[in-house]
Amino acid sequence: MAVNVNPDDRDQFGSSLGFIMAAAGSAVGLGNIWRFPYLTGENGGGAFVFVYLICVVLIALPLLFNEIALGRKSGKNPIGAIRDTGGNKFWQLTGVLCVMVCFFVFSYYSVIAGWTLGYIFTEIINIPIDFEVFVETPEYVIPLTFVFILVTILIVLGGVSGGIEKAAKFMMPVLFIIIIFIAGRSVTLEGAEAGIQYYLNPDFSKITGTVVLQALGQAFFSMSVGWGLMITFGSYLPKQSNIIQSSGWIAGMDTTVALLGGLMVFPALFALLPGKDPSAGPALVFDVLPRVFDQMPGGNFIGALFFLLLMVAALTSTISMLEVPVAYLIDDRKWNRKKATWIVGIAAMIMSVPSALSNIEGNFFADIQFTFLSNPIEGFFGAMDFIFGTFAVIVICLMLALYTGWASKISDFADELAMGSPGFKGSFRKGWIFFIRWVCPIVIILLILNMIGIFGAPQAA
Asked: Which ranges constitute the DSSP H helices of 163-285?
């Protein structure tokens, strides 16, 4: 099998630490600090956290190994990685889907990130703002979205070691410092014990099929598997690097941030708004938390810090989302980085506008309604999130597991994992092969079948 491995002129990470910080930054995002707490609140608190941790270890982590190995072995973007490891046109469609997912999710994810920019300023100057009014005001939301995308473009223009790695090495420690500070303040509030109990003491009777599906879907979303991000970052990884150790750090940092995200939210919520339903849904962070901060001493400062944290977390993810289509254009279309970054970035700005407008009642983009694989879809934003941010990601995870596990020679990828990872042998190696070939595909197929309503009413992950 002819494999083009990391040519000399291809950009690389300068260190394993740089790779870990960039890849962990890719995984750590709004999925940890915005999505994880509200899904925990909607799915029984501690019971959801328990199932989520199992899904991370048994499903998401083996898939993470898989994607990084595929990227480093090929030294290419997701499409080139499959092509250069022997995949035919059918399997290369998985790579095409990776590039599409990253572009389209980047466009609507940046809208949410733009909200965080707005809230940083409203918290600093202590002006209360109604969340529903804010998201329905395009004069605020669209410019904020464009500013956020512009910042992402400027970082990616710097390249892998000069832009992405340097930014990640700075932003990830800042993110951890802020989140530890706010979580520490939250758990020391009077009355916080009830929130800690709700969050960390699982009631196993609340574990249902829905909870398992939501936890598995969140594990995919949070760990950034199924996006092609880890294939792309793996392609910039030197051969001597320890993929197993690096993946462990990535998963550990990602899970730690998610758990700390819950410790920021639930103790403060129970302490300062007793009786408030923790299942407030996606608005939990933007609608409920500012009211919580208002009741804290120095609340506007803490609130501004929190939304700065959200913005940094979003930025560490969007950098990698933009890098995937940029890497494709550089590798396969021979564009230079400047041209590829600006064109993809400007296209994402244009694509973000319908998502921003879809929160305005009576707007064409808000009124879009259709059924996709038995799932009712409402609004342009909702369509993008379900089709590209949820369903396509799960399909990619399945296809990549089938490709490396069955269509390709899986021992080649196991050898790639063993390179630089002397502990990857024996039962550890056999276990990973078994999970990629059997456990992961079966679990993902069951998830997809449930999403499309085979086992009853459709249930989105």
From this structure: 166-187, 193-200, 209-223, 229-235, 243-272
Q: Identify the CA nearest to 51 among candidates 241, 188, 211, 239.
A: 211
**In 3-state terms, what secondary structure has residue 397?**
helix
Dihedral (CA of 371, 374, 378, 383) sign? negative
Residue written as token pair 């500012």: 290
pLDDT tens figures, 28-51: 888 888 889 888 988 889 999 999
> 105-142: buried (b, 16+ CB within 10 Å) or exposed (e) per residue?
bbbbbbbbbbbbbbbbebbeeeeebebeebbbeeebbb
Task: Give the SS3 label for residue 371.
Answer: strand
Tokens of 166: 């340097």
CA pseudo-torsion sign 355, 349, 157, 343: positive
Beta bridge partners of 377: 370
CB 3 within 8 A of CB 88: no
* Sequential DSSP letters for 18-76: HHHHHHHHHHSSHIIIIIHHHHHHHTTTHHHHHHHHHHIIIIIHHHHHHHHHHHHHHTS
Secondary structure letter of residue 331 according to DSSP = H
Q: Which class is 16-427 in CATH?
A: mainly alpha
Torsion of CA 329, 333, 338, 343, to 10 degrees: -60
Q: Is the pTM of this model over 0.85?
A: yes
| Length of the chain counted residue by residue | 461
For every residue of 254-299, DSSP letters joined together read HHHHHHHHHHHHHHHHHHHSTT--S--GGGIIIIIHHHHHHTSTTH
All residues at 6 or more sequence positions from 399 whose CB lies less than 8 Å from its CB, including other chains: 91, 94, 97
Of 404, 62, 71, 30, the C-alpha closest to 234 is 71
For the stretch 272-329, pLDDT in tens is 888 777 876 667 778 777 877 777 778 888 889 889 888 988 998 999 999 999 999 9
- Any alpha helices (H) in 56-130, and if so which ranges? 61-74, 78-84, 89-124
The CA distance from 190 to 271, in Å, is 6
When computed from its CA atoms, the radius of gyration of the chain, rounded to whole angstroms, is 21
Round to whole Å and give the CA distance between 52 and 59.
10
Q: What are phi and psi of 371, to 5 degrees?
A: -110, 130
Token digits of residue 144: 């904020």
